[in-house]
Amino acid sequence: MLLKFTKMHGIGNDFVVIDGVTQRLQLKPRDIMKIADRRLGVGCDQVLLAEPPGRPDVDFFYRIYNPDGSEAEQCGNGARCFARFVRQRRLTQKRVIRVETLSGISELRIVDRHQVEVDMGQPTLDPGSIPLHRPQREQEYWLNVQGEELSIGAVSMGNPHAVLRVTDTDTCRIEQLGPLIEHHVDFPHRCNVGFMQIVERNEIRLRVHERSAGETLACGSGACAAVVYGRLRGWLDEQVTVQLPGGKLHIAWPGEGHTVRMTGPTAVVFEGSIRL
């Protein structure tokens, strides 16, 4: 099968995006792994698949695959790229696009030629729904990681996140702690792990170890989770600029009972095809 694709990125978080609306596809985990392989395939942090909607109130179903072939619930940077992709491919002319993922429905708004705003929905804070093995919701949770007690925040943005406040993201031990926290027994579905340095009340630096992918240049849902945690602790204002290794995202969250909105750029790298 010869598969057409578009390579895209959102501030360095890169994706292979596939039109499953006009192409008839049945991708298996081994196909995803081949596509995502940076030496033997195209190479990407995640593979995104546009499918016809499964319900009348949305425009597309949007699947997100990790490099190991597993399916993720949500991806903020991917959602922005997805919005630009379906417009570029003329699958829709709408400027406000409703998509369904495994985590629910998101609304994507085209701001201009490069910027896309994503309504990421309300954060989930109940530990049983994140999921995190804790009997009740707390401001912070303590994890024992190889004998070291770590204070974390736990948030789901449709996918589970642990957030640690650090003094300096340059020395935050992400290579060591990221995989250990991702696979911690208290996160039964594993988790993404964010390391947040607060610069000002309206600005943070962030590095994210993503579940199944390792550290990436950017993570949209991770940026949202970090701002939510910082807001709940009283550290951050309603609108925050998040500086990631790949660039900046703008996150707005008024507080509990409201949705999180993320705005950032997208870019097309190239188009091509791969034989599976």
UniProtKB/TrEMBL annotation:
Residues that coordinate or bind substrate: N13, Q46, N66, G76, N77, N159, N192, E210, R211, G220, S221
InterPro entries attached to this UniProt entry: DAP_epimerase_AS (IPR018510), DAP_epimerase_DapF (IPR001653)
Keyword terms, alphabetized: Amino-acid biosynthesis, Cytoplasm, Isomerase, Lysine biosynthesis
Site label Important for dimerization, positions: F270
One Pfam short name: DAP_epimerase
GO molecular function, one term: diaminopimelate epimerase activity
Keyword Cytoplasm (UniProt): yes
Catalytic activity: (2S,6S)-2,6-diaminopimelate = meso-2,6-diaminopimelate
Could be important to modulate the pK values of the two catalytic cysteine residues, annotated site positions: H161, E210
Enzyme Commission number(s) from the entry: 5.1.1.7
Compartment(s) of residence: Cytoplasm
Any single biological process term in GO: lysine biosynthetic process via diaminopimelate
PANTHER family, A to Z: DIAMINOPIMELATE EPIMERASE, DIAMINOPIMELATE EPIMERASE, CHLOROPLASTIC
Function: Catalyzes the stereoinversion of LL-2,6-diaminopimelate (L,L-DAP) to meso-diaminopimelate (meso-DAP), a precursor of L-lysine and an essential component of the bacterial peptidoglycan.
Official protein name in the record: Diaminopimelate epimerase
